[in-house]
Structure formats: C-alpha cells, structure tokens
Amino acid sequence: MTEEKATLYRGLREVYIDRTTSSYIDGKLGKLYYRGFSIDDLAENCSFEEIIYLVMIGELPTAGELS
Questions:
Q1: What is the pLDDT along the chain (67 residues), one digit of tens a residue?
Q2: Residue 13 domain-assigned (yes or no)
Q3: d(CA 50, CA 61)
Q4: Distance CA 32, CA 36 (A)
Q5: Which helix or strand (DSSP H or E) is residue 34 part of?
Q6: Residue 6 and residue 47: Cα distance in Å, rounded?
Q7: Is the residue at 39 inside a domain?
Q8: Per the structure, how many domains does the chain have?
Q9: d(CA 29, CA 21)
Q10: Which residues pair with 23 in a beta bridge?
Q11: Which of 4, 44, 67 lies closest to 53 in space, CA to CA?
C-alpha cells in the first residue's frame, strides 16, 4: 500500500466553485445576500438566531419558532 501526499496551495489556486441557493455575492456592488435578504438588512433587523434559522431552514422564523 502506498501513501499519497496531499498538495497544499496558498490563496485560491485549485479551489473550485459551485452554485448555492443559500447565499449570493454581488461582487460588482460589494453586496452579500442570504436567501435573498441583504446581509445589511439582516444585521440591522434580525437576531443571530433568526439569521441562523434563515440560513438553515430557508425562511425567517415566526415568533413561535424562535421560542
């Protein structure tokens, strides 16, 4: 049995990308969105728990779901 050594790279060389529905980065405008909501709006109006729920479940929680 032979051991295979991993090759480590600095920066983004050999880093692959894929599509996701949980976030979107608009590089030209410098904007980040989670599930269609601007990160600026989320940070200003939502709790940490609400944002985590949004990222994991796909929608903002109701008051009952938070308690």
A1: 678 887 777 777 777 777 888 899 998 999 999 999 999 999 999 999 999 999 999 999 999 999 8
A2: no
A3: 6
A4: 9
A5: strand 31-34
A6: 40
A7: yes
A8: 1
A9: 19
A10: 34
A11: 67
